[in-house]
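Re: the 160-residue chain
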Amino acid sequence: MELKEIQELIKFVSKSGVSEVELEQDGFKIVIKTGGTAPIMMQQAPQQYYAPQAQQQLAAPVAAAPNVPTDAPAAIPVASNLITIKSPMIGTFYRSSSPDKPSFANIGDEIKPGKAVCIIEAMKLFNEIESEISGKIVKVLVDDATPVEYDQPLFLVEPN
């Protein structure tokens, strides 16, 4: 049984409201029990070939998940006259409204209060983030289409 098939089965069980599903195929047995809010997966395999492969595949995405730099804002030297535009929410940062459109704000652009500088997608809602200050964009601190945290610095602005 492939990892995708197991994941689809888990999703199906969690959506259906069933409390337990047991499936046995070719000497491979999987039991999925829901307890609380998320399904719990238990697997027993009489053949050692299935269990190590499934465990390795399940462990890989978990190890790759923490990809958010925690000390990135502290490593950026900030001049005393620069103002930071910070993220007002958790979500995904986008510099433009679509890949074929120009960025809202580039380095060297003049911004005014009320001008959109980026979009942050949160729970399938696209929120335009507007500037509250006027000045010139000196640096863009976040890459396009990357996750951002609440209060994370997005832009450095030299005020007028």
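Residues 23 and 30 are 5 Å apart (CA to CA).
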